[in-house]
């Protein structure tokens, strides 16, 4: 009896347990909806561009058995190949998802999007690149090494930063001003007597900095030199830039030589004189110079000799730009006696016609010299091609190829005459009455072109100035004189001028009052310093 009762209850217990297990399994079976996925793995992105769209890696939804809600904050998502959206939607197990973010507008700054599927959130983080690059800076004026008699100098330069932008520029702790976010800047800096270092410090928005340096000496010019006393000038006249050799070439009339000046420092060396490299085809009172860079040579004009007599070798020498060797190209017997020189003054190389154009003060003409043979022809005189607008005392000459003309300064006419390069016909571009009497010329000599500003620049020793002449209408303005922009380093007897467009400066030969120097004149402000003395 006892055995029967125990077995009965045992069988009942087993049946009950089985029913419970079956019910439990049913609860976990096909009727249960699971919307809790495994976390999505979005890899962080670094060094992203500013304010740009960045898309995550592809992640697959796993661990759900029915549709789950999907939503996002801080970005957008796309399911499979669908469109990006920021609206709440649904997603199924096995579908792929990507997230995208618009990155920060600041450097080294994270931004995140949080994607929520069901009740599980996953984060995508994008960090913008860090700006560790220094800005770019350059002092454009004064020259890297210079001298002044002024108690201050107007420093001008450029700056840029392609990432965070330039935030500030100072020179010797004096803040610079700008109208174009420091692409161009300037600041007047006080100077003490003696050597001064100008340190321009440029800082970008991320506090990266860079410095540019120039050295300027405040001194009494009549008793001082720059950059040294080596190879001093005696009577500098003509000047030209020899860019392929990173130098400026200056003719010294008294020394009968061509000096080379380092483009940055103004340091002087002898390229050619009557013993360097030898005595062949010596100079005789050289005056002005022009360049034929393609053939590695300069042309030098010989004027009247120093005692006032006529040099039998009036004419043109070539000078090898490497060796300094001289060669007689044309004089009054070479290659013949046709169209002789009388007093050749200034000179310019017309590369398009392979000729050298020479102003002759006495003949009152422009003589064209074949750059190969030395043969001379008259381009323009007071009877050729006609008698209109005759020369009186032609001196400086430059080329305006855009208008097919040469521009000639006339000392006595106090004018700039335009000469057609084909016909030789003359017209008055600018004079004391054309287009008006404003800023009248005194004794204009050297002339050059400042093409980017549509102007010619001439030096005038009568008024001690650099004068700008508009190439279209001939209007005149003063770029630099004894009061513009100030009285420091005033011009006395400027003789020739050339434009250094790379550094926005003009270089002027100065022969007055024993100064015998090359002045640098800022093309934007007119500020003057001694470049080489």
Structural account:
This protein has 533 residues and is mainly beta. It is built from one helix and 41 strands. The strands form ten sheets. The protein has a five-stranded mixed beta sheet, with no helix packed on it. It has a five-stranded mixed beta sheet with strand order 11-17-16-13-14, with no helix packed on it. The protein is elongated. The termini are far apart. Mean pLDDT is 92; it is low at 1-11, 13-30 and 305-310.
Write the layout of secondary structure elements.
Blueprint: H1 2-27, E1 45-48, E2 53-55, E3 59-60, E4 68-73, E5 76-79, E6 89-91, E7 96-102, E8 110-117, E9 120-128, E10 136-141, E11 145-148, E12 152-160, E13 166-171, E14 174-175, E15 184-190, E16 194-204, E17 209-218, E18 236-242, E19 247-252, E20 257-262, E21 268-273, E22 286-292, E23 297-302, E24 315-320, E25 326-331, E26 344-350, E27 355-360, E28 365-370, E29 376-381, E30 394-400, E31 405-410, E32 415-420, E33 426-430, E34 444-450, E35 455-460, E36 465-470, E37 476-480, E38 494-500, E39 505-510, E40 517-522, E41 528-532
Parallel strand pairs: 1-9, 11-17
Antiparallel strand pairs: 2-7, 3-7, 4-6, 4-8, 5-7, 8-9, 10-12, 12-15, 13-14, 13-16, 16-17, 18-19, 19-20, 20-21, 22-23, 23-24, 24-25, 26-27, 27-28, 28-29, 30-31, 31-32, 32-33, 34-35, 35-36, 36-37, 38-39, 39-40, 40-41
